[in-house]
Amino acid sequence: MSEFKLTTVEEMEAATNRLLETGAKVGADAWQYRVKNQTPHCKFGETGVCCRICAMGPCRITPKAPRGICGCDVHGIVGRNYLKFTAGGAATHSDHGREICHTLYESAADGDYKVKDPEKLIRIAKEWGIETEGKDIYDLAHEVAYTGLMEYGKPFGYQRFMERLPEHTQELWKKNEVAPRAIDREVATSMHMTHMGCSSLPEALIKQSIRAGLCDGWGGSMMGTEFSDVLFGTPKPVDTEANLGVMNADNVNIVVHGHDPSLSEMICEYADDPEMIAYAKEMGAKGITVSGVCCTSNEVAMRRGIPMAGNFLQQENVVLTGACEAIVVDVQCIFPALGPLSKCFHTKFITTSPVAQMPDSEFIRFNAKTAGENAKAIVKMAVENFKNRKPELVHIPDMKQKATVGYSLEAIVKTLDGVTNTQVDQTGTLKPLWDCVAAGVIRGAVAMVGCNNPKVRPDYAHIELMKYLLKHDIIIVASGCSAQAAAKAGLMDKRAKDLCGAGLKRVCELADIPPVLHMGSCVDISRMMNLVSELAKVGGVNISQLPVVGCAPEWMSEKAVSIGNYVIGTGIDTFLGVDPYVSGSSEVAELLTNGTRQWVEAAFTVEKDIEQLGIKMRDRIEEKRAALGV
Ligand code: MSK
Q1: Cβ neighbours of residue 478 under 8 Å, at least 6 residues apart?
Q2: Residue 164 in 3-state DSSP?
Q3: Of all atoms in ligand 1, which is nearest to the CA of residue 294?
Q4: Beta-carbon contacts of residue 182 (< 8 Å; ≥ 6 apart)
Q5: Is the C-beta atom of 209 inside 6 A of ligand 1?
Q6: Other Cβ atoms within 10 Å of 196 Cβ, number
Q7: What is the DSSP letter of 388?
Q8: What are the DSSP calls for 68-87, one per residue?
């Protein structure tokens, strides 16, 4: 076995700089330059004190002008902005979930989309009280999908998945009026509350932010995850590779980017088609390589072992290699910059969703009914573009790491079951994990999630925090671009166990796992919610008592704020490395960093010093252990 060495952020930055040199030759723009044009940022926006929800303004709060024209103070303005931000994220994740429900509704035995995990479908149907006996699996799939779609607009009741939670959390949510009702209702109510002349009371606005977040985490996102598993298979551990070196100079390179696996799964399917591979050879290539960026990459990596070319701030890099025949996108986190950038190269920038249409792209409308046809057309377009490549511009950084990914909750239960229980009964629960935590072999867990943000040195916070926590026997579950940062560095290689403290290293050896477990995309943070919920039940404690915290050190999107709200809403303290535009209001900041404990037993910590962020998380985990007496 070759010697194992982590890839450093410095090495990744050097690779990026080399790609920017190619970009300079063809007059390409890049986020690194645009950041310079946009900084320093507007202080009013940055602190959240600018209001433009009506046409009397915009109003900006200063010591000399402490109220807007309507009389709203800074706390109301900051709180409203925060709620709007959350609603944007909850709507986005949940609409992704809705699309997956529709795809499930279109599934058919002879269609492009099939049910790959019927057991999971039956399990969910039973959980939801849907009769399963004697039903054709596709009739059942349609009934479950329809029931899921009704979760968006039902007039009464709470989200069905809420019943997965320990009684204590369910009661707490109902008592404090944060229990999530219909998904569309929570988003619409949030927009109603932030309309001119509605709520300006910080408590009401922050409470609704939690509720809107919870309809995402325990509603739209959870359905997105669960039904993607039903359609495309529940992830199991699988080997893959990560970083730009996964692109292949001899092959047609197709990069999938975005979030919805309905598209990327189909692209992978057709790129594997012998007919398409033969066509690629006819065009002078040796084959077809599909790799991914952002969360759609996580989806296909988890289920198919498709390599991950990079995360959010690496999306322009794949085009800058000069070896990308097509970057195919669906929804979310796609830089509009990819349009003009692709024009500097031979790359086809292919948009596919009516939700994410962009200038300088070729639009091939992707739809569940014509998915196969659409995917074939896209792969063909990429193959035919190989001949347009300019060899003098091709440079793929020789940089990649091995990674084992695919740790769904089901896979974690199965894998960890053998650790402490090998001689006794294998219960198929999280009891072995609880035993490891209670015994202190593992001190606790951190859910590392979220994006890159140029405000933080890209990937540095993710990687350094993970290294620090592993050393202190704190296991990491990761998703989204955080997971990709870990994979690029090598932290998902099982050999990274040597970076762990003695206890965690032993667990990694016994269970044969990497120390950072890849749990999927950003909607898959719902997997983490199910994990803590089950762990609390097994341990006989409340979720908020677990030595577990969430962390998004480089977050940037509205979705991340919605996630943060549902993670604290579920009872898990969450640590952020970027301020969510609330520093302008002492009242809103106090509510988010402390006040929410009265409703959901958890709150945020914002800490921009990455070293301090790590120390604070570890301290919180140890505090929870001490309080539990373990
Ligand atoms: S893709 S939301 S940059 S994690 Fe899910 Fe990455 Fe953040 Fe997008």
Answers
A1: 447, 448, 449, 466, 486, 516, 517, 518, 519
A2: helix
A3: 1
A4: 151, 152, 153, 154, 155, 215
A5: no
A6: 15
A7: G
A8: -TT--BHHHHHHHHHHHHHH
Cα angle 347, 348, 349 (rounded to 5 degrees) comes to 110
Mean pLDDT of the chain: 96
Cβ neighbors of 405 (< 8 A, separation 6 or more) are 235, 237, 238, 240, 298, 301, 302, 305, 483, 487, 492, 518
Q: What's the 175 CA to ligand 1 centre distance in angstroms?
A: 33
* Mean local confidence (pLDDT), 507-524: 96
Can you give the pLDDT at residue 417?
Answer: 74
Give the whole-angstrom CA distance, residue 255 versus residue 629. Answer: 49
The per-residue pLDDT for range 43-75, each reduced to its tens digit, is 999 999 999 999 999 999 999 999 999 999 999
Q: Pairing mode, if any, of strands 308-310 and 288-293?
A: parallel
186, 161 contact by CB (below 8 A)? no
Q: Does the beta carbon of 335 lie inside 6 Å of ligand 1?
A: no
The answer to whether 552 and 482 are in contact (CB under 8 A) is yes
**Residue 94 CA to ligand 1 centre (angstroms):** 15
Helix %, strand %, coil % of the chain (to 5):
55, 10, 35
At 3 the pLDDT is 86
Q: pLDDT tens, 379-421? A: 999 999 999 999 999 999 999 999 999 999 999 999 977 665 5
| C-alpha–C-alpha distance, residues 312 and 482, integer Å | 10
The DSSP string of 10-48 is: HHHHHHHHHHHHHHHHTT---HHHHHHHH-SPPHHHHHT
578/455 Cα distance (integer angstroms): 8
Q: What is the pLDDT averaged over residues 479-499?
A: 98
540 Cβ contact list (under 8 Å, min separation 6): none
Which pTM does this prediction carry?
Answer: 0.97
Half-sphere exposure of 116 (CA within 13 A, CB side): 14
* Residue 500, pLDDT above cutoff 50: yes
In angstroms and rounded to an integer, the radius of gyration of the C-alpha atoms of the chain is 24
Structure tokens at 138: 């596709």
Instruction: Give CA–CA dist 464/6, Å, rounded.
Output: 12
Q: Is the CB of 218 under 6 A from ligand 1?
A: no
Taking the C-alpha atoms of residue 249 and residue 264, their distance in angstroms, rounded to an integer, is 21
- Is 450 a pocket residue for ligand 1 (Cβ < 6 Å)? yes
Of 313, 253, 324, nearest in space to 289 by CA: 253
